Amino acid sequence: MLVIVAPGQGAQKPGFLAPWLDLPGFADRMAAWSEIVGLDLAACGTTGSAEEIRDTAVAQPLLVAAALAAAAELGGTPDLVAGHSVGEFAAAAIAGALTPAQALELIRERAQAMAKAATLTETGMTAILGGEEPEVLAAIERHGLTPANINGAGQIVAGGTTEELAAFKGDPPARARLVSLSVAGAFHTVHMAPAVERLRAAAAGVTPADPQVTLLSNLDGAPVSSGADLLSRLVEQVASPVRWDRCMATMTEMGVTRMIELLPGGTLTGLAKRGMSGVATVALKTPDDLDSARELLK
């Protein structure tokens, strides 16, 4: 059983689109989608600096467009799809619940709304690597933080104010390593509540289809069969924790043996190698990875 997954914010790196733009039709897709999101996606993905593409309003449309373009190059139909945070919008389009245009229109609104919400309070996110999960979660709660991403494979990301994160750094969970993340705010926490309302208003104008491929939800890892339910979940996940651990658990329960991570791949296949024993993985980083990915599709 094959799953195709789309990465979330933070996966982007300066210049990551450059080798892909030489593929026939790739630049044309980027140009057309640039009109939808109001950004020069090719420029963002080739000459944009790390700071420029860290901007939430840039990173999210760039990541969804890159994942969808890579999926088009890959071809084929998976058994399952899933996406981490913003990647879930790409997954929704791959599953046929949204058109690429609808996904990009919604992600434009989501990105701008989350960027604005991040300016209201000084917030951030910290990854916790290792430690015992109950102790890590207890420490997060003790400091008033939110477990914004429970990723499995010994990785949890906490979100909250800079003061809360500083106190957490001074009182970390036992046997855990803390890594401050280069993100603009505390995504998937209560601090993103203002963005939920803007995205809900935008989603009201979208008529989704029911997914044609099984799609797993970030909210609880469950398969979603209704387009309306999926759209509601996409709205709510902005201020709700990402349960990638449950997505991986569902993949394991359903018998996934192969995983392809779309551009810019690496993060989710890394988690799978640690948390899904025996699963063959390919991460799309450059066009050279397409042949290996197509082998997994067979």
Description:
46% of the residues lie in helices and 16% in strands. It is α/β, with parallel strands linked by helices and 298 residues long. A hairpin with a 6-residue loop joins strand 7 (214-216) and strand 8. It is globular and about 50 Å long. The model has no long low-confidence stretch (mean pLDDT 96).
Identify the notable features of this structure and list them briefly.
298 residues, alpha/beta, six-stranded mixed sheet, 13 helices, 16% strand
- Helical fraction equals 40-55%
Question: Tell me, what's the shape?
Answer: globular
For the biggest β-sheet, the strand order reads: 8-7-2-1-9-10
For the biggest sheet, the summary is: 6 strands, mixed
Secondary structure tally: strands: 10
Number of helices: 13
The chain-level mean pLDDT equals 96
Secondary structure class reads: alpha/beta
